[in-house]
Amino acid sequence: MRAAWRSAITGLALTLTASASSAAGPSVTAAEWETYKQRFVDPSGRVIDNANGNISHSEGQGYGMLLAYLAARPDDFSGIWDFTRSELLLRDDGLAMWKWDPSAHPHITDRNNATDGDILIAYALALGGAAWQREDYLRDAAKIAKGVLGRAVADVGGHVVLLPGARGFRAKDREDGPVVNPSYWVFEALPILKLLAPSEIWDALAKDGLSLLRAAQFGPARLPSEWISLREEPHPAEGFDRQFSYNAVRIPLYLLRGGIVDKPLLERLSKGMTGPDGKVSVIDITSGRPVEPLPEAGYQIINPILACVFGGTPLPREVTEFSPAHYYPATLQLLGLSFVRENHPECL
């Protein structure tokens, strides 16, 4: 068994080395991480969603661990993982309960998982395990990855899809099921998780997730909705706002961070989510019109990153300065800056 884990560590290290850029040092700066930690990470290791009633969730814990890894802060990583493991990883299938509310008793208010959170946690554990020679992190990452394969992946008409949760999204659960959220595909994580839970399903999941994004062109803006029904042809799911909203904004960033530079797809997403004022906004799928501006830098950084990738345009100062107000756009901003530092330092 120990030899197998050494092989996993070696495989991860080689993968990370092959994908590394010439950027020296951490891709999240010490100052950025300290600001993020002071504002959004409780001393217990709880990552706080301060725009959502100060709850914590598996997505936030995974993001916090990933950013701590990118900032080369193993002690902070360990603290966030300790809270995650003791407070959320309480299911018997390897997945995390997704919602933890400080004002509720017990604190867990939804025992279902959120699959993007599970993927982020497992991915961060895999990276940390390889970087810091922590076999325990790799074992825990593998357990979560196996849980995702067993409980949150489904075959729908010959296509492999990611269910947003183990319960509530299958054909048997909903009249318009199965239902998926395309922003849950964390493309950069899938090859890493395949090293820990070997299966060709990970490759099919990446391929079919990309195919779904290429096919989901709803309304005048030709955007995917956040929640998509896969009963018959893909279409916006019932019971959800017919919008390209907060979650969906991260799709272009996930594609780029996953090494998927599909110019027609990325340009279509960029054009569709950008209002007449040139700013990224929540978009109504039916009308194609903006319904809510998204002024924070973490949202507005997406289009400048695309301009950098496709044209070498430097990022404007307003999206490179890190003065965050809310957890989620702050996270996207740091993931975006990390990507540019690692892959396009000429744009800074």
Automatic annotation (TrEMBL):
<dbReference type="GO" id="GO:0008810">
    <property type="term" value="F:cellulase activity"/>
</dbReference>
<dbReference type="InterPro" id="IPR002037">
    <property type="entry name" value="Glyco_hydro_8"/>
</dbReference>
<keyword id="KW-0119">Carbohydrate metabolism</keyword>
<keyword id="KW-0624">Polysaccharide degradation</keyword>
<feature type="signal peptide">
    <location>
        <begin position="1"/>
        <end position="23"/>
    </location>
</feature>
<keyword id="KW-0732">Signal</keyword>
<keyword id="KW-0378">Hydrolase</keyword>
<dbReference type="Pfam" id="PF01270">
    <property type="entry name" value="Glyco_hydro_8"/>
</dbReference>
<comment type="similarity">
    <text>Belongs to the glycosyl hydrolase 8 (cellulase D) family.</text>
</comment>
<keyword id="KW-0136">Cellulose degradation</keyword>
<dbReference type="InterPro" id="IPR008928">
    <property type="entry name" value="6-hairpin_glycosidase_sf"/>
</dbReference>
<protein>
    <recommendedName>
        <fullName>cellulase</fullName>
        <ecNumber>3.2.1.4</ecNumber>
    </recommendedName>
</protein>
<dbReference type="InterPro" id="IPR012341">
    <property type="entry name" value="6hp_glycosidase-like_sf"/>
</dbReference>
<keyword id="KW-0326">Glycosidase</keyword>
